[in-house]
Design goal:
single chain; alpha+beta; Immunoglobulin-like; six-stranded parallel sheet; six-stranded antiparallel sheet; 14 helices
Length: about 575
Amino acid sequence: RDFLEVVHQFHQLNIPLSVLVIDMDWHITEIEGVQDYWQGWTGYTVNNKLFPDFLGLIKQLHKLGLKVSLNLHPSGGLKPYENRYREFAINLGMDPEQEIPIPFDPTNPRFMENYFHLLLHPYEENGVDLWWIDWQQGTQTLIPGLDPLWVLNHSHFLDSSKNQAKRPFTFSRWTDRGGQRYPIGFSGDTVISWKSLAYQPYFTATAANIGFTVWSHDIGGHDDGIEDPELFCRWVQFGLFSPIFRLHSARNQFTTREPWRHSTEIRTIVQEAMQFRHQLIPYLYTAYYRNHSLGIPALRPIYYLDPEAKEAYLHTNAYLFGECLYIDPIVSPRDPLTKRSRISTWIPEGEWIDFMTNEVFVGKKTVTRYHPLSNQNVYVKAGGIIPLVDSINSRADENPQQFLIHVYPQSSGSMVLYEDDGISQQYLSGDCFQTHFALKVSDTSITFEIDPDSQEKPYIPRQRTYRIFFHNVESVTPLFNAIVHDHASEISVKLSSYEKYLLAFEYRKIPNNRAILRSLESFLIDVPLSPILKQAIYDAFLRESNKKAIRASYQNTPKKIQAVLNQFLARFNPSEKQR
């Protein structure tokens, strides 16, 4: 009931979920009055006190669109009170009446055969979708030098690949270099601290250097530390642009990972971030197909883009995500006066657009940014095309019918969206569906083409709707179904999924000052100054023709506020006509 209530609460906030991971409490770990041989970590028999209808729970979770994962700590072997102990013991040639514990032995083929056949497969047949191989395996086996976690990861991966209708899939801990060939990685129990958060982007990005590109972290942490809602919020924002997004709670009511238990500010930011994570699935799926087929890590250090730039190595948390996103996560708290987090970011060569504000930055240079809690330090490469799901109510395991396409026409660009059935191994033989997006930009005109494969696929909807946002441009050409926003022009079109589409229009650029003024207005609203002074500062930016006069308008404000205003002014162009 409690699990279902949590899921329903997420759904009431319109937060999509894909997987529910049930940690070790799903199984019995000890029985009162019976010797607990291995300290209560290992178990394979459902705890009926906590889960009186375990199979019914799995069915209900599936009806709600969730996959189910169970946690395993296999090192304890099999205890005599486990449901499958008797059959397991007989199959190993042991006398079950003696109730001798069966030690975990991954080097014994008969043990591993029964481990899967008797202990795990029955749960899979009743709906368990994947296993989380957690710690406690130890480091030694009967074969010198063979780590048991290697055997477990290898064996689980092979066992899950036997069914050709499904892809091999497992979730486990790091086994050392080379171990990335098997699981989604779990980076271990995480202390709740800003220091932990600050390390994870660097850890995740540099892991690409040895080919480990699919990491899952404990978002928010859960293992000791200081609980801080702002820290949780920033951790969620990093998780949004990380390989696997996984919240991790604990058996403590104050390890608060449920968004609805936080303040309105935190709840709203976390809610929007998790909704956007769901929308990002087409972009993510394509990035990981490129990871698989081309060996290009979906998440990789920024020095992959410019290996000769020393600044790329100095900004250790900065990374590329997919084809056109650049992330430098905010990993420090806000200043209480400015209500902004300060971050120094290196902008690579070319034009990069702030994903949150639409402000354009030109590299190569380092800029200082001040971000409110609602904003992240995310940039899009000029010419970037980002396909998103245009509905948070769609299922993550189904290809979308409605798309939201973000286009950044500061330069020409292209992108190939990759889709397949999402579950079988047919993609290995080339079964997929690709949609080519092409953007061509001149000084006065833009053409945008959608060119999908023509062969029909059962996993692709017959029709699709595209909402296309062209950022920082206004259409001069009258267009049907066009909406002009303050920061973009929006075009909507409904097509057959197999139909080619070409859009062409004349445009003019939206001045960069417009984005800066929006951010300035937001900042002035947040800081404690008199409204008369706030208006004077804003009007100076809007009307004065030189930076000296603008700076004079705020020279008597506190130094920390001046520092933020100075950064706005450094990027502001007083001579640019305001429209």
